[in-house]
Specification:
With about 270 residues, this protein is α/β, with parallel strands linked by helices. The protein contains nine helices and seven strands.
């Protein structure tokens, strides 16, 4: 770790543009890095560029987080490296094909990466952060978490999981000194080109945000203490209204008796008309 660093930020999916942008921005903020991804060539090039530009130390960790053996190696690092102060769970894949055109095996692989890997890495680092009394966990979700009709249903469901998981983490860990943020981008250039090119091609330019802008907005949200950051959302009051409605609803979700509309009819007239 370099002298006077903020600690080490572990960024998964760093071969991608959002992950690479996080790595670059965090290095400029004083973090040393461990960048995780499948493509060694891209990771090595990114590490060299960041080190040259910022002087920060960058460790390359080649791993496919969809494979349990690779995932376990990253978990071990998170558990054992006391210099880690931030985890950015960015690794993930997307899909836009509807259910009847999707392959169940491909959907399962997406769940493994978007849900299982993110969960296991968070479980690996959270106890260490709590023991130290500080740490930051950033989880990359999507606007599909609250608008699943826009894309593939399984993809939307995985991102809804990331949102719910992050909200729960915040509830459990905020009083223990742990910062939690969930970032929910809309359509993002380059990322969609790789996983959903037909959707990207059909969207007007004003609907697609550059990956670097997504990260800049996310870090601005982190700086002001946002739990949920939606880079494209112009009026934060819209999210606040949705969250207030959710909190109101939560108070009425569990009762000893069913609501009146859900009770069996009291009409006992079983006669048959002719």
């Amino acid at each position: 770790m370099s002298l006077h660093a903020q600690g080490v930020a572990v960024v998964t999916g760093a071969s991608s543009r959002i992950g690479a942008a996080y790595a670059e921005r965090l290095a400029r903020r004083g973090y040393d890095l461990t960048i995780v991804g499948r493509n060694r060539k891209h990771l090595d090039a990114l590490a060299a560029r960041i080190s040259d530009d910022t002087g920060r130390a960058v460790e390359v960790f080649v791993a496919d987080l969809g494979k349990l053996e690779d995932l376990a190696r990253v978990e071990t690092t998170l558990k054992q490296d006391a210099s880690v102060t931030m985890l950015v769970n960015n690794a993930g894949i997307g899909a836009v094909t509807p259910l009847l055109q999707s392959n169940a095996g491909v959907m399962e692989e997406m769940i493994k990466l978007n849900v299982v890997a993110l969960t296991r890495l968070t479980y690996a680092i959270a106890p260490a952060f709590v023991a130290r009394g500080h740490g930051t966990i950033i989880n990359i979700s999507s606007v599909a978490a609250i608008a699943p009709e826009l894309v593939n249903g399984v993809y939307g469901a995985t991102k809804a999981y990331v949102l719910a998981f992050s909200q729960s983490l915040h509830h459990e860990l905020t009083d223990k000194g742990i910062r939690v943020q969930v970032v929910m981008p809309g359509a993002t250039s380059i990322e969609l080109c790789k996983t959903a090119g037909t959707l990207r091609a059909s969207l007007p330019a004003e609907k697609v945000m550059p990956a670097a802008d997504v990260v800049d907005a996310a870090l601005a949200g982190l700086d002001v203490g946002e739990l949920v950051t939606i880079p494209s959302l112009r009026e934060i009051a819209d999210w606040d209204a949705l969250e207030a409605a959710r909190q109101k609803l939560a108070r009425n979700l569990s009762r000893a008796h069913a609501a009146a509309r859900s009770r069996p009819s009291t009409n006992t007239d079983t006669s048959t008309r002719h």
